[in-house]
């Protein structure tokens, strides 16, 4: 494989990876830590540890990416978060 082909292959892989979307969860002054943790476990298939870490990041940093993937996979998960009263969006 020539150098030119290798570079083109690397670019193609990077373009495919960039099609990933993210659910970003935002901090609010309404929901409890337990509610956010339980919702992340249910909606995003987080382990309790993952959910707790994301909740802490949201609390102190203001936001956190809680799930990445294809838009069609993330949409129902984000809807669950929103229906539970959390502030989230897909970017």
Any overview of this molecule?
The chain is α+β, with helices and mostly antiparallel strands. The chain has four helices and three strands. The chain has helices at 3-17, 33-44, 48-61, 71-83; strands at residues 21-26, 63-69, 87-90. The chain has a three-stranded antiparallel sheet with strand order 2-1-3. α2 runs antiparallel to α4. The model has no long low-confidence stretch (mean pLDDT 90). It holds the Pfam family ClpS. This is ATP-dependent Clp protease adaptor protein ClpS. Residues 17-83 form the Adaptor protein ClpS core domain. Keywords: Hydrolase, Protease.
Question: How would you describe this structure in keywords?
Answer:
single chain, 91 residues, alpha+beta, Ribosomal Protein L30, Chain: A, three-stranded antiparallel beta sheet, 4 helices, 3 strands
What is the name of the CATH superfamily? Ribosomal protein L7/L12, C-terminal domain/Adaptor protein ClpS
Oligomer: single chain
Tell me the number of structural domains: 1
Order of helical and strand elements? HEHHEHE
CATH architecture: 2-Layer Sandwich
Please report the number of helical segments. Answer: 4
Q: What percent strand?
A: 15-25%
For the largest beta sheet, what order do the strands appear in spatially? 2-1-3
CATH topology: Ribosomal Protein L30, Chain: A
Largest sheet composition:
3 strands, antiparallel
GO molecular function, one term: peptidase activity
Keywords: Hydrolase, Protease
GO biological process, one term: proteolysis
Protein name: ATP-dependent Clp protease adaptor protein ClpS
């Amino acid at each position: 494989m020539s150098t030119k082909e290798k570079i083109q292959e690397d670019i193609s892989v990077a373009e495919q990876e960039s099609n990933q979307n993210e659910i970003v969860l935002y901090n609010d002054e309404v929901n409890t830590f337990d509610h956010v943790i339980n919702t992340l476990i249910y909606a995003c298939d987080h382990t309790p540890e993952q959910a707790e870490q994301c909740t802490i990041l949201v609390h102190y940093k203001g936001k956190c990416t809680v799930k990445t993937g294809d838009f069609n996979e993330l949409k129902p998960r984000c809807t669950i978060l929103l229906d539970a009263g959390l502030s989230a969006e897909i970017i």
